[in-house]
Amino acid sequence: MENLYDVVVVGGGVVGSAVARELSRYQLKICVLEKELDVCNGVSGRNTGLLHSGILSGDQPVRTECCIEGNAEFDQVAKELDVPFKRCGKLIVGFGEEEKQCLQQLYQHGLECGIPGIRMIDADEIKAIEPNADGDTGIYVPTAGILCPYTYTIALAENAAQNGVEYHFDQKVTAISRTPGGEYEIQTENGMWRSRWVVNCAGLFAYQISVMLGFEAYVPKRVKGEYEILDKKAGKFLSVPIYPAPGKAGDCDIHITPTVDGNILVGPTLEDVDETIDYSATQEKIDQLMEQGARLFPRHVKREYFIRNYAGIFPYVADPGIQERVDFQIQAREDIPHAVNVVGISTPGLTSALPIARRVVEKVKEQEELRPNEAFNPVRKGIVRFAEQTDEEKMRLIEEDPDYGEIYCRCECVTKAEIKQAVHNILGVSTVSGIKYRTRATMGRCQGGYCETRLTAMIEKELQQDVKDILLNQKGAYMFVGKVK
Ligand SMILES: Cc1cc2nc3c(=O)[nH]c(=O)nc-3n(C[C@H](O)[C@H](O)[C@H](O)COP(=O)(O)OP(=O)(O)OC[C@H]3O[C@@H](n4cnc5c(N)ncnc54)[C@H](O)[C@@H]3O)c2cc1C
Known about the structure:
By secondary structure, this protein is an alpha+beta fold.
């Protein structure tokens, strides 16, 4: 039967893509239904990109376990998936007696959770680890690291696709029912899909899919965080992320994080928001970021380094009975056969994505025997980044393919060859942001002023798209209305 799958994964963010990748280790026909036009348009493309250690995961055992497990394995994962990653460690710093006590409690909690290598440090040691950081007391967390969140999400999705998983974009799931024969019928805005299994990985909207499948009607809650991105000129002054002592909810206030690509992120601000997905920036938060950022990283959080801002929203869910924030939920129920419900993946879902995925696979295995896919290949190669090569390697690349000799994005030194490879990505993503996330073109100081039209020209030529149909990132976000000459 057409469109009959063994497993449909709803949502193609980092969790859904990790689930798809882990399930592709078995002989299963799998597809991912994603409402957006790419895999990193949800929470997974809008976060800090920190590989958390687990020290800040609070008293939520699944969240803590998944985080510690995901952290421990990440050197191997980054190597397999060709994802840039630095295990740089992290500082959590405090000012004054009250914050010192808070840090001591956090340190004890970290020891109880088994976070490897953590230690309390004083002002001198803070300076020795990062001369540009300030603080009276601190915790040094050596296992923390930094990675690019969208590169990781794309890498998981591409590896899943290489191993046979189909990705279908612009497929917002609107209803799910079960036939008398036991198959699921999954209605999207653009079609009907059938599957023996459904895995809910819909992030901010997982609570809706939960109800469609017959699981609990969780109360959705949302937290918005705004960030500023600082120029690479400031990036060279920071080697480790600096976090302030956590507040009452266990979340850390505005922090300073170097990105794996050499910028600095200031943020996020954290505020509870309603169900509207509003990623806009506010002057109030920009001022707050500048002021609080300068407290942790004085001298270098300056307006002259500001490139742009962005925001992310993470979901958490409250128990329908007691209305309290619940742990990560990875559920299967006897009365809802062949369904796994992944809800409440707040943070650190990026760090925890593969451990969550393995727990999903275990739930599937509890209900049916899975046969290994002998052809499964865990290795995925990304696009070779010209800017990161030695002079000899650059010469060799240009000899092999002269398109490496033509720079399309001046700020980030991205070549025509890289743009062309990105346009022909295995997932079939054809938006301008899709190229940006795969190459870093438009992410520099000029924010696409020079290269954006060159990217659209490449999409037009390589994919034979009418220029009026080229989209920035989502449905309706057209780049142009027509040609002037
Ligand atoms: C401000 C902030 C900072 C963070 N920092 C970190 C960090 O440093 N480290 C870390 O580990 N974690 C961090 N996180 C958390 C992390 O980003 C998330 O936990 C993780 O990205 C969740 O991934 P996901 O796949 O569940 O969600 P998403 O990426 O949102 O994926 C869900 C997908 O489902 C799709 N979808 C939704 N509804 C439907 C539907 N009806 N039909 C089809 N598709 C649908 C969405 O379009 C989306 O693509 C942070 C989050 C935020 C907001």
